[in-house]
């Protein structure tokens, strides 16, 4: 069994669907962090069978919108003095900006420089978004 | 309503108020021929258009206003690579209102985020065409007396037909509307219209391939053009092409009170012999288009 120390003050991102930990790790810029971080993959989980987990020994701003969009089942635990002081359950964000790109070649986002790709949640159950500009449907299959 | 980008930007009350104003303009046009003096409309047409641009320009001139603009991007700084926000901020400081047509979907919405003056979407790619919808709704109201309790057939290219998308959106807010969507499978309406409008609002609709199978059920028939190059294979085109041409023979199957609409330009999807049929409304539709644009410009500029 792999053993990783508990953290004193920082953040634990738990219940990441197995296989998605690395992409979240990179999205959060943790691959270039100068503080202690751990990415643990394929951890046995009662709830999901297997899960990924990220431990961050530092207080950083976590983009909850991005995390919720990638996987709304993720839990973010805030740790102080080795204890969980806050547990944040995520949900699919109403709007996501600059995280995914519209794939419709007829969309204005395909030609304009500096345009921010924006998506609006239209069906929470199915995790369906639409491009704010061209209405192209984007289904999250996380 | 500050801008008109999508048909849903206008509430039903605002629509009614626009129709009322358009009716007043039709009856007493002279009363309105100076209300936009000292106002300037810019028509920014990033792709060619005759009808819509002329309709906007004629509308503004008949209101006593002035018009500037370009009818192809080659004659503007767009060719030098200027972004939409820069063009809009520049033009917006010269004029009072902008009508914009663009080949890319969502371009007018993007423009509206940077504009100090009202932006009207005059057609964006295969996406939306809300002022054509105003035209269509006014035509339906004038010919049918109301925009409810109607079975509407939309025929042709429903995938890339922006007028169809806008019309379905707008009609979905009226009571007891049923849609019969007539198109080849390749050209069925986009998924977002089904998901967000038809399914979400439980609006009855069916999708069929042949006009002659359903024409007898329709109160309104909205024709659009099917282009050969939109088909994936020629065999399907040959099998179906005649099904999307309205002629006297097919009209024999239709109701006596059918109204035939078409956003124009027509190529061959409505035979010329149909023009003489009292059920043909598409040339009235063109005229209403100018009056409803006069009403829209008047409202957006707040001059009445």
From TrEMBL, chain A:
GO CC terms: aspartate carbamoyltransferase complex
Metal-binding as UniProt keyword: yes
Residue ranges annotated for the Aspartate carbamoyltransferase regulatory subunit N-terminal domain, each copy included: 3-90
Domain Aspartate carbamoyltransferase regulatory subunit C-terminal intervals: 95-139
Segments forming a coiled coil: none
GO molecular function, one term: transferase activity
Keywords, ordered alphabetically: Metal-binding, Pyrimidine biosynthesis, Transferase, Zinc
GO biological process, alphabetically ordered: 'de novo' pyrimidine nucleobase biosynthetic process; pyrimidine nucleotide biosynthetic process
PANTHER family: ASPARTATE CARBAMOYLTRANSFERASE REGULATORY CHAIN
Cited NCBIfam families: PRK00893.1-3
Name of the protein in its database record: Aspartate carbamoyltransferase regulatory chain
Organism the protein comes from: [Clostridium] ultunense Esp
TrEMBL record, chain B:
UniProt key word Kinase: no
Residue ranges of every copy of the Aspartate/ornithine carbamoyltransferase carbamoyl-P binding domain listed in the record: 2-141
Domain Aspartate/ornithine carbamoyltransferase Asp/Orn-binding span(s) in chain numbering: 149-298
Classification via Pfam families: OTCace, OTCace_N
Sites where the protein binds L-aspartate: 80, 162, 225
Gene Ontology terms describing biological process: 'de novo' pyrimidine nucleobase biosynthetic process; 'de novo' UMP biosynthetic process; amino acid metabolic process
EC top class named in words: transferase
Coiled-coil regions listed in the entry: none
GO terms for MF: amino acid binding; aspartate carbamoyltransferase activity
Gene3D superfamilies, A to Z: Aspartate/ornithine carbamoyltransferase
Catalysed reactions listed for this entry: carbamoyl phosphate + L-aspartate = N-carbamoyl-L-aspartate + phosphate + H(+)
Keyword list, A-Z: Pyrimidine biosynthesis, Transferase
Keyword Transferase appears in the UniProt entry: yes
Chain residues that bind carbamoyl phosphate: 51-52, 101, 129, 132, 264-265
Pathway: Pyrimidine metabolism; UMP biosynthesis via de novo pathway; (S)-dihydroorotate from bicarbonate: step 2/3
HAMAP family per record: Asp_carb_tr
Protein purpose: Catalyzes the condensation of carbamoyl phosphate and aspartate to form carbamoyl aspartate and inorganic phosphate, the committed step in the de novo pyrimidine nucleotide biosynthesis pathway.
Protein name: Aspartate carbamoyltransferase
Species in which this protein is naturally found: [Clostridium] ultunense Esp
GN (gene name): pyrB
């Amino acid at each position: 069994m792999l053993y990783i120390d508990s953290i004193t003050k920082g953040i634990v991102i738990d219940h990441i669907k197995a296989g998605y930990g690395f992409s979240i790790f990179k999205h959060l810029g943790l691959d270039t962090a100068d503080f202690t971080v751990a990415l643990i993959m394929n951890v046995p989980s009662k709830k999901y069978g297997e899960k990924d987990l990220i431990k961050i020994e530092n207080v950083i701003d976590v983009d909850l919108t991005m995390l919720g969009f990638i996987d709304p089942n993720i839990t973010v635990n805030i740790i102080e003095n080795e204890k969980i002081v806050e547990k944040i359950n995520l949900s699919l964000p109403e709007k996501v900006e600059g995280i995914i790109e519209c794939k419709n070649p007829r969309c204005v986002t395909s030609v304009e420089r500096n345009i921010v790709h924006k998506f609006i949640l239209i069906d929470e159950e199915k995790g369906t978004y639409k491009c704010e500009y061209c209405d192209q449907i984007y289904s999250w299959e996380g | 309503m500050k801008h008109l980008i999508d048909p849903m930007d206008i509430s039903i009350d605002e629509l009614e108020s626009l129709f009322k104003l358009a009716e007043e303009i039709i009856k007493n046009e002279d009363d309105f021929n100076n209300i936009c003096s000292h106002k300037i409309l810019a028509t920014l047409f990033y792709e060619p258009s005759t009808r819509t641009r002329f309709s906007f320009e004629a509308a503004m001139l008949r209101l006593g206003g002035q018009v500037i603009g370009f009818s192809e991007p080659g004659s503007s700084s767009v060719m030098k690579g200027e972004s939409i926000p820069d063009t809009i901020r520049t033009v917006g400081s010269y004029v009072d209102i902008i009508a914009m047509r663009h080949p890319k979907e969502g371009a007018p919405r993007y423009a509206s985020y940077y504009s100090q003056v009202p932006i009207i979407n005059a057609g964006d790619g295969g996406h939306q065409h809300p002022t054509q919808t105003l035209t269509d709704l006014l035509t339906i109201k004038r010919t049918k007396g109301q925009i409810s309790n109607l079975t509407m057939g939309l025929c042709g290219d429903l995938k890339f037909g922006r007028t169809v998308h806008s019309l379905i959106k707008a009609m979905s807010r009226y009571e007891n509307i049923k849609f019969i969507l007539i198109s080849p499978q390749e050209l069925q309406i986009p998924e977002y219209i089904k998901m967000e409008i038809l399914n979400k609002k439980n609006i009855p609709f069916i999708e069929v391939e042949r006009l002659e199978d359903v024409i007898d059920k329709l109160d309104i028939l909205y024709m659009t053009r099917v282009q050969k190059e939109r088909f994936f294979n020629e065999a399907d085109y040959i099998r179906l092409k005649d099904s999307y041409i309205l002629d006297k023979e097919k009209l024999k199957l239709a109701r006596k009170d059918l109204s035939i609409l078409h956003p124009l330009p027509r190529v061959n999807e409505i035979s010329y012999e149909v023009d003489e049929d009292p059920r043909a409304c598409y040339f009235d539709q063109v005229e209403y288009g100018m009056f409803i644009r006069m009403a829209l410009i008047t409202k957006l500029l707040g001059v009445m």
